[in-house]
Design a protein that fits this description.
Layout lengths: L2 H31 L22 H15 L4 H16 L9 H21 L4 E2 L4 E2 L2 H37 L1
Antiparallel strand pairs: 1-2
Length: about 170
């Protein structure tokens, strides 16, 4: 196979991956957007058997899991995913899109953002006061750091971590 054919094949595969990821992101977005805490999910039976989520029981369960664990920063998954889709569709000749390093950095960014939400907005909850802004991960992280570093020290550590991993994610 010639070099030109290899590049065209890689480009085609990356564009197909981009469309696949885009479909998954639309599903996640619709699930998060139409989340209702009363819907049945894997985490709860809800008050009714009727699922109001636009993506059905699977969407309800996925949104519930994401919101409970990461809070509002769950939307960071969608944002980061759209950056990936853009790269796959409009820069299809790049060698690597999915790497352990970029995935780990993205996850650290997501976790630090959840913790920042929890630190600064711990008294704000959404969806009828059932989901905290930072989710369970943010609550856990802040509850571990705050006794050691107090509020200001925790804020400095979390914002520094977020900015470091955000800059590192841009380098991948």
């Amino acid at each position: 196979m010639t070099w030109n054919k290899k590049l065209k094949e890689r480009s085609r595969k990356n564009r197909l991956k981009g469309v696949l990821v885009l479909g998954f992101l639309v599903f996640i977005s619709l699930s998060l957007y139409s989340y209702h805490p009363q819907d049945p999910s894997l985490n709860s039976v809800g008050l009714s058997l009727k699922v109001n989520n636009l993506c059905g029981f699977v969407g309800s369960s996925l949104a519930d899991l994401l919101y409970q664990f990461f809070g509002l920063s769950s939307w960071w998954i969608v944002l980061g995913g759209f950056v990936l889709v853009y790269s796959l569709l409009f820069h299809p000749f790049r060698e690597k899109f999915f790497s352990f390093e970029s995935s780990a950095i993205f996850l650290l960014c997501l976790m630090s953002l959840a913790s920042i939400f929890e630190l600064h907005f711990s008294n704000i909850q959404f969806f009828d006061q059932e989901v905290s802004l930072g989710g369970a991960f943010g609550e856990m992280t802040v509850s571990l750091l705050k006794p050691l570093l107090h509020t200001v020290g925790t804020a400095v550590v979390l914002w520094s971590a977020f900015l470091i991993v955000l800059i590192s994610y841009g380098q991948c």
